[in-house]
Specification:
The protein is 47% helix and 16% strand. The chain contains 13 helices and ten strands. Helix 8 crosses helix 9. The structure holds 1,3-dihydroxyacetonephosphate.
Length: 336
């Protein structure tokens, strides 16, 4: 087993998943202002420190993805954030892309930037304690999009990023996210997501990335958020499995889904069904941002000194996601 494969398994085995707390300052400001909390470095740290000090970190969370500001912060009791995360047994990770910018020649689409100087930034993040990284590509979906240009350009960037990350002895999370926005059908999502993922693996292989040392972070197969016809959760799970079976090479150890705007319960239930129906060897778990943090943030914002109230909610969500990653979640457990 390679060292990279060991890191992957440490993060996502046995029902553990990933807490995606890597919102950029821009995104975090939107999240905090929505609950009437000023977005200062202190408040951003305070919410994240609350989550990272929770009991559930020990049992249910194998890795935390951080943002550049957070990985360099020190907690109120003097520990560095990476040390706080490591002390719970989870691994610190870091978002290394520099965001999605308009794609030249197809301005309604995005290309993720951040390759220039990446090798040097990775060295520094490793020294700060990071053992895995994230790069997110986003794709609009409609009959016209994503274009071949967006699919190829983002796959190429994801592959160059992954090769550099593995060279730095860290595990790359490869995140090609086909967005939920739109009125498209689930079948169109299945077709386009398969195309996107297949192209990513073509490029990863060309860049000689060790596939046993990556984590794929895809979207689930859903009808668009504005679609009139939705599909059942059972169908979501079956179509998601169909997509992954036809587009992900078997060497990949694990898949950690993003929640992408699904509600907390929806993201949990869909992951649970994916695991119940999982007839592959892939580990299927969560790498959720909003679906792990939304309720905790709402409670925390009411009284940011009452860390226990926010931690109780976060502990519950983390446990529900952990059970879903084992296919052992039921709706009844939500009210206990
Ligand atoms: P969501 O689960 O909120 O989609 O966030 C996951 C993530 O890391 C997006 O890049």
């Amino acid at each position: 087993m390679s060292e990279l494969n060991k890191i992957v398994l440490k993060i996502i085995s046995g029902g553990k998943g990933i807490l995606a707390a890597d919102e950029s300052n821009g995104t975090m400001t939107k999240r905090l202002e929505a609950v009437d909390v000023p977005s200062t470095p202190e408040n951003r740290l305070s919410f994240r420190e609350t989550l990272f000090s929770s009991e559930s970190m020990n049992e249910y969370i194998g890795g935390v993805i951080l943002y550049d500001e957070t990985i360099k912060q020190t907690t109120s009791f003097g520990k560095s954030i990476p040390d706080l995360i490591s002390s719970s047994g989870a691994l610190p990770g870091i978002k290394v892309d520099m965001g999605a910018k308009d794609l030249a020649s197809s301005s309604e689409e995005k290309i993720t930037e951040g390759l220039d100087g990446l090798r040097e930034r990775l060295k520094n993040y490793y020294k700060l304690g990071a053992r895995f990284t994230k790069w997110r590509a986003i794709y609009n979906i409609s009959n016209k999009y994503p274009s071949k240009l967006a699919i190829n350009s983002n796959a190429h960037a994801l592959a160059r990023y992954s090769a550099l990350v593995q060279e730095s002895k860290m595990v790359p999370i490869v995140e090609p996210e086909v967005l939920m926005d739109g009125d498209h059908s689930a079948d169109l999502c299945l077709k386009k997501t398969s195309e996107v993922i297949k192209k990513c693996f073509e490029e990863l292989i060309l860049s000689k990335v060790d596939l046993s040392g990556i984590i794929l972070k895809p979207n689930m197969i859903l009808a668009g958020a504005q679609a009139k016809v939705k599909i059942s959760n059972e169908e979501v799970s079956l179509k998601t499995l169909e997509c992954l079976k036809n587009s992900v090479p078997s060497e990949v150890p694990g898949i950690a889904f993003l929640s992408g705007g699904q509600s907390e319960i929806e993201a949990t239930e869909n992951l649970n069904l994916i695991n119940k129906n999982n007839d592959t060897n892939f580990i299927m778990t969560f790498s959720y941002g909003r679906a792990l943090q939304q309720s905790a943030l709402a409670v925390w914002s009411k009284n940011i000194k009452n860390t226990m109230a926010a931690q109780n909610i976060f502990n519950h969500r983390a446990k529900m996601c952990y059970l879903a990653a084992k296919g052992k979640w039921t709706n009844r457990l939500e009210n206990k």
